[in-house]
Amino acid sequence: MPSHIEPEVVLYDLACTKNVCFSPTVWRILPAIQHVPTNTYMMDSTPIAYFLESTYPDPPVPLTSELGREIESKARAVVGMAFRTSVMPREMDILSPRAQEYFRRTREAALGHRLEDLLDADGEKEEQAWVASGDSMRAVGELMLTHGPFVLGSRPSYTDFFIAGSLQAAKMVHEDVFRRITKYPGYAEVYEACLPYMEKKG
């Protein structure tokens, strides 16, 4: 019988009632990890990416490229607007009570209003956000298909994981949001190409 292998890297997430790693703050923006062998704790996706790449260089993962920077910048501006409206207020529904309190306090302080104000009963605000972003979302998605199946071609880069992580977060929070964005070209292709790398090992 194979012995249990302790993980070398621990990823911290908000407490979720679905018992999954879901939060956009973990998947793409501001994660926190512990590197067990060196007892090192780190926050923020960029230094974490460089630390992991230097610690585990095989297989290599390109961390930056001109195309990747363009996609990340445009996706943050365009997809971020729609996700803020559709995903952020719904995250409350899958958080534990203690995580809900933290999430509400920090997000509402940043927004300057209640999370509930991002949505309305008839869905008009949400629809307006998606309509306003639609053409730009399509343009960003088409950039993702420049080489394929990954942004830079046959191997994944930091940008691919940025995209796939954002989509995974949306999927865990609200399946309809995930389905809506993956109707645009590029998003589903990158997400599906990254799936093998998102499986939990051990």
UniProtKB/TrEMBL annotation:
Transmembrane portions of the chain: none
Domain Glutathione S-transferase UstS-like C-terminal: 76-175
Source organism (scientific name): Lachnellula occidentalis
Pfam family, one: GST_C_7
Protein's UniProt keywords contain Cytoplasm: no
Record-given protein name: Glutathione S-transferase-like protein
Gene3D superfamilies: 1.20.1050.10, Glutaredoxin
Classification lineage: Eukaryota, Fungi, Dikarya, Ascomycota, Pezizomycotina
Tagged with keyword Transferase: yes
Domain of life of the source: Eukaryota
GO molecular function annotation: transferase activity
Keywords: Transferase
